[in-house]
Amino acid sequence: MDLAGLRVVKAVADTGSVSRAAETLNCVQSNVTARLKRLEEDLGVALFLRLSRGMAPTPAGRVLADYADRVLRLVAQARDAVADAAGRGGRLAVGTMETTAAVRLPPILARFHAENPDVELTIVPGPSETMLGEVLAGRIDGAFVAGAVEHPELVSRPAFEEELVLVEPAAGITSETGRSTLLAFRRGCAYRARAETAMRDAGRLPYRLMEFGSLEAILGCVGAGMGVTVLPRAVVERDPWRGLFTARPLPPELARMPTRFVRRADSVETEALRAFLEAVAEGNPGGGAASHAPTQPAGLIPSRAAC
Known about the structure:
This protein is α/β, with parallel strands linked by helices. It contains 13 helices and 11 strands. A hairpin with a 2-residue loop joins strand 1 and strand 2.
């Protein structure tokens, strides 16, 4: 049993297929099959069930895949820690919601890069639910996610405080179809969940839901009058979107949305990660609380529904 064998076990367990595991590992399928056979002979137990459509881990295979995941994460952390100690900068992979990447992170990343030019920094965008999975799997070092986080394997710290608003085109929406159409990111986005709650609370049922893969696409379609969306006020009140939209406040229980930075509780806080978190704190001394006064009501309170 060696690291290469553990990587094979983890890849097959994650993908459920020898062919997909080979693609992940950038090798030929015969190498994956041979590695698995040697491991099973060495351990004296079957690790995977060979099914007509893929591979499924046996109980012993699930145990080994879990250990493989932990060992490989420790190896990656050890490499980063050694790079830290040697003054080579190391690597850092950070997940983030697209809105946070667009509005909050640019000045923070600029400061971090200027002060830590040797760190190999990777930014991975995605919805909060996906980012939590990536952190738990050890594929990224940490992530910015929306809302409270309670998980025994994670630790979190406050990063920003967002005020969610209903976003409409500045010229308003005249069609009933547009008012009852919600434009949102795919499932797993915390903002989408709040938006759907707001639509239900307002009695806007049934409502149409259109999913998009990017912030620009959502705002472009809102600007064209296709529907409404829910986003942080900081997004629509900054360039290049300033003046193109009307931001209407939501009920207080839906408007407040904290953004937290999460990482695994058992992860090593490398010098690169420590420097990054310091840059976040320096770039957000006030905790990110929304400072804008409400303008017009969003109409998502039942007594005056207008969204």
